[in-house]
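Running low. Any example?
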Amino acid sequence: MNLPATRVEVMNHIGKDVDQLMDEYLKPIDTNWQPSDLLPDSKSENFIDEIKIIKESCKELPYDYIAILVGNTITEEALPTYESWLMSVEGINQHAPVKTWSKWVRWWTAEENRHGDLLNKYLYLSGRVNMREMETSTQYLIADGFDISTGSDPYRNFVYTSFQELATNVSHRRTATISKSFGNNHLSKICGLIAADEMRHAKAYSDFIKRIFEVDPSEMMLAFEDMMKKKIVMPAHFLRETGMNISQTFSHFSDAAQRVGIYTAEDYITILEDLLVDWKIESMSNLNASAEKARDYLMALPNRLKRVTERMKAPTLEYEFDWITR
């Protein structure tokens, strides 16, 4: 992908404010929550009793729900892939003139890293999961990497991260709601805290896009259009289990999410609509002819996707994942 030289110039310009934005969108490490704050203390005399409570509270959680929780955990634990990908982006990588971008990626990664750690340990204690199979899928997902059709373009990558952080917020927020409906307030709190992190991160990446629109509106609009034409793929789209080929498990994971209502085709459209409003796409001015066509395409896209979604049938076949202990 041949990128205009102005991309790096724009990133250098915006990068001057990243330190300030980090203070706004990331929390101080010393006072931030850590996984151990939400898990039984192994030094406590009540440690075994607290584990028993976790196992008991997880017994009635539905099969598909546990599958989504496992898939979400694997997705979070594939963090090395996401960090290495962002570090390869033009204007962001460690060789870029403005070093604040690589600092942002490291600090964002550090905050995200807590999510997989916490969920992994909770699932280990739950007694509902075949941990070896889950760990194998995690290793595969990191080893296989991913291709999100952004190349090394910062504009396309920030469209992707803006969209994806909102999607993960939806998924973790819904898992929090469902666990609470089954009386598991502990897991609900865990998922809710992770969802809150994801929303802050979504706001950060969305803010980056707004700043790009201010100085390079036509190119930013064309990059947004290109990403939506390709469709935003989930970071776990290469998900697989032992003995399977790349992506074989992901469709089953997506079907389970659709059945339970944790992340649906309708949510994809809602996120797109939210971004169109947040970035004020409809009223965007100072666009060249190509970018104006791109804006028209983007504004018409939600209704087009809704017509497609209306014809979709809800998946009903429950797949048996290797991750889950019956």
